[in-house]
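Many introductory courses stop at the sequence. We go one step further.
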Amino acid sequence: MAKSIQHNVAYVACGSGCASAGGDARCSEGCIGCGACVTACPHGAIALVDGIARVDRSKCTGCGLCGMACPQRVIAFVPGYQNILVRCNNTDKGAIARRICDTSCIGCGMCAKKCPAGAIRIEDNCAHIDGVDCLSCGMCAVVCPHGAIHDRTGIAAGV
């Protein structure tokens, strides 16, 4: 699949399945919905949706101000062409991560085993995708037992 060269864009590494914005079981590494990133973005590229920050890639310039403003450090930057994203920043081990979040990466490695390009590594109990090597085939999203990997194109949903 051909990849166009684009600037980096922000994404929020939180799938909002956790109770980070309140409740008893709080993910200490998820988006808390404070809006600091929304305020910091000079391009209006970030909005709070159901209490979680979401980035409009068409408006994001990759300036990095949102990432610097985020107290949770949950905003990451990826190449603009990267469509497969890990929406989790949690480093807790599987059982703990499952207890505090419905969509956490549990570090099981199923995604890395299924990736035909070898673009996924598990580090600190969380999957990380190399956007340069990723083929955007979506197989990692298909096999992820917790739904922590998001396919922006929706291709994997039909597999």
